[in-house]
Amino acid sequence: MKWASVLGITVVVMLITLYEWPKMTKNLKKEKWAFVTLTMAGWLLAVLLVFLPSLPGPNDLIDMIFKPFGKLLQE
Amino acid sequence: MIEKGKISAQQMAIMMYPVIVGTGIISVPAVSAEYAKNDLWISPLWAALIGFVAVYIAFQLHKFYPGQTIMQYTEHIMGRTLGKILGFLYLVFYIQMNGGGIRIYAEFVTGVLLTKTPIIVVISTIVLVCAFAVRGGVEVVARVAQFFFPLYVLSMVVIIVLLFPDLNYKNIFPILADGLIPSMRGAIVPGGWFAEFILVSVLFPYLTNVEKGRKWGMISVFSVMMTFMVTNLLILFVFGETTSRYLYPLFTASRYISIADFLQKLDPVIMAMWVAGSFIKFSVVFYALVICTAQWLNLSNYRPIVFPLGFLTILFSIWGVPSKMVESEYNFIVFPVYSFFVQILIPLLLLSIAFFRRRRPALR
């Protein structure tokens, strides 16, 4: 089941690439790099989340920083 | 410039309205009633002050650096390295905010209507639609907003009119029984939403007439405030003391509508309204995110990164998000402070630095 999810994620990422890649002309070098980096980051994160669904996210960090202030307001 | 489209100031106001109302309207009576009890209708007044401040900050900053978005002048004001770091903070904030908003939307849709659909399907479909709108550019997003706005207002009016027989006006008393403090505390969470008006700083450079930008920004804040006040009053008149017990009061109220056993079950109207509003909201925030990311990376075209960023937004609506987002501590306690910090305090700091730099140009 998990490997099926990975396959599904890979298919989605490939579809995005197939849709977007031909549209980028040769002089858009930077854009290609940005596209590849963001897409790979998305793929990696998605696969990580399939195997470790309780991976601590940015929300947990924000929780840690801002919760004391938030609690202060509720008093 | 990265975006060649132009929008009018009115279109900007129409785009910004659903950014706050879109996801807010369904839960605003409950979150305000939690602290304000039956003074919940006063809370939007306090919360809107933050919205006015946000529009003012954005307009003043744009006057110092005309034709630039918040991403560009952050770099000019803070210097390259610090500007990039602050910019990254903004990007993380907006992708997180949009992810959280989409999560709340999807929880509502799967909770009351599509109970057997996996939540990821609801999330992915709305992001896909938004991505196509964003790919079309600022003009497309503006016209989508313009198209849905009248329908949105109309369905709102219909619901209000049809609820008239169920209203109990005595619920409003006692007014201000415990002074102003409870209504101010009820404004904390909506205040965090009003801070999102700083997004006008991404739209100002694309206005045909920037001078009108401030006026229409203020009009937009004012209409959001009025919408929230009317909604809160309506829900107060229907539910009275028990308002805070409902997760989605407006939706529950719409189920009460029954005119002569003929006009019933109007909850799909609210649902349609909510989906349309959320769609515009996510599109506008998504658009701002894409433009900011492209400027952060110094790209000359933002279209290639729309879909990868959409994919990341989907992940951010799942990654480390509490399972009942709308009732969570994050939504109630953490997000308002986070939002205020990123969207009001940091721009205010930028504005004051820009102000002093402008006064003493010799120091530059």
Automatic annotation (TrEMBL), chain A:
This protein's UniProt keywords: Membrane, Transmembrane, Transmembrane helix
Tree of life domain: Bacteria
Transmembrane spans: 6-21, 33-52
Name of the protein: Preprotein translocase subunit SecE
UniProtKB/TrEMBL annotation, chain B:
Segments traversing the membrane: 12-33, 45-65, 85-106, 118-135, 147-167, 187-207, 219-240, 269-290, 302-321, 333-356
Organism in which the protein naturally occurs: Neobacillus kokaensis
InterPro entries: Spore_GerAB
Keyword tags: Germination, Membrane, Transmembrane, Transmembrane helix, Transport
Coiled coil regions in record: none
Location in the cell: Membrane
Topology relative to the membrane: Multi-pass membrane protein
Recorded family membership: Belongs to the amino acid-polyamine-organocation (APC) superfamily. Spore germination protein (SGP) (TC 2.A.3.9) family.
Span of the signal peptide: none
A Pfam family: Spore_permease
The protein, known as: Germination protein
Predominant location: membrane
Record flagged with keyword DNA-binding: no
